[in-house]
Amino acid sequence: MGVIIIFLQKAIAQGIGILYGALGEIITEKSGNLNLGVPGIMYMGGIAGLMGAFYYEQGTANPNGFVGMLISFACAFLAAVLGGLIYSVLTITLRANQNVTGLALTTFGVGFGNFFGGSLSQLAGGVGQISVAATGAAYTKTIPGLSSIPVIGPVLFSYGFLTYLCIALAVVLSFFLSKTRKGLNLRAVGENPGTADAAGIDVTRYKYLATCIGSGISGLGGLYFVMEYSGGTWTNNGFGDRGWLAIALVIFALWKPVNAIWGSILFGGLYILYLYIPGLGRSMQEIFKMLPYLVTIIVLIFTSFRKKREYQAPQGLGLPYFREER
Predict the structure, then answer these.
(1) What is the per-residue pLDDT across 136-149, written as a single tens digit (0 to 9) for each?
(2) 200-252: pLDDT as tens digits
(3) Could you give the CA distance from residue 142 to residue 164 in angstroms, rounded to a whole number?
């Protein structure tokens, strides 16, 4: 029982960062934009949040963890929004190819994170020595009392602020997309921007807002990984392929935020499964890390056979829209 509880805890903890990235990309893709820059944006959010907390604590004699949390949260979100804005200007206004731009943004974001992460480590006295103790403690603080309940406590109530924010955000986004006028307008833009434009919907504004806000949400995945999952430490290239898993999760969840919740836990569990199987060599470990992608491919095959519109990507996904060509 103890091993199962630990595995579930690790699966949830591993999946939350992926879930943030997926939620942001779902909003972006609902507008018709395909942003393959999510991995880079997560790096930008992670390092910006860590830098905000680091400089706050270095410049304050008695740093307050809550203040540090607010500063790092704002820095991460704004840095990721900036990444989304760069992508939006290039693809929406300047008409650059979405796939190429997204991949370039990933390369830039990873380099940006590694450069400033290494610089911070040197300022702090060496690699891995970055200290944001007060802010890190605020992020990892669990729910008092509930976390000590046997079995249920460790599995459901032993996480920090960003974990519960992510779950709540998924529920709110699901309601927004399916029950509100703005959400329905956004979906209309992603399905057929020409028709949405003719109906009086400002397609360009919706695309910009969805991409920038979606990027901001994805950036919180990087903040989560640095602050809550890693305890306020930075390791170059430490995110691994979690950003790409977030993009795969969008497809696995069929572009539905609530589906992404349990999908992220599944992905998190599959991603660390090799750690709980004794005797695996390095090559077999890498094969086990492929399982989330394999599951996504299987889901794609089955949904393509069913051909239901609700299981498909937005019809305008990845396609540029120019009003003068309507």
Answers:
(1) 889 999 888 887 78
(2) 999 999 999 999 999 999 999 999 999 999 888 888 888 888 899 999 999 99
(3) 10
Range with the poorest average pLDDT among 81-90, 114-123, 240-249, 300-309: 300-309
Query: Is residue 19 exposed (0-12), middle (13-18) or buried (19+ Cβ within 10 Å)?
Result: buried
Span 93-114, average pLDDT: 94
List of E strands, the chain? none
- Is residue 52 within 8 A of residue 75, CB to CB? The reply is yes
Angle subtended at Cα 44 by Cα 40 and Cα 80, rounded to the nearest 5 degrees: 95
Residue 66 has pLDDT above 80, yes or no: yes
Is residue 195 a contact partner of residue 188, using CB atoms and an 8 Å limit?
yes
Q: Determine how many CB atoms are found less than 10 A away from the CB of residue 298.
A: 11
Number of Cβ within a 10 Å radius of residue 235:
14
Average pLDDT of span 264-280: 88
Q: Is 273 exposed, middle or buried (0-12, 13-18, 19+ CB in 10 A)?
A: middle
Residue whose tokens read 């299987």: 298
3-state SS class at 59:
coil
CA gap 252, 249 in Å, rounded: 5
Which residue in 191, 188, 204 sits closest to 316, CA to CA? Answer: 191
End-to-end CA distance of the chain: 60
Helices 65-88 and 133-140: angle between axes, nearest 10 degrees: 80
For the question of whether the overall pTM of this predicted structure is more than 0.85, the answer is yes
Q: Which two tokens stand for residue 319?
A: 């396609």
Place of tokens 């206004």: 93
For residue 116, what are its two tokens? 């400033």
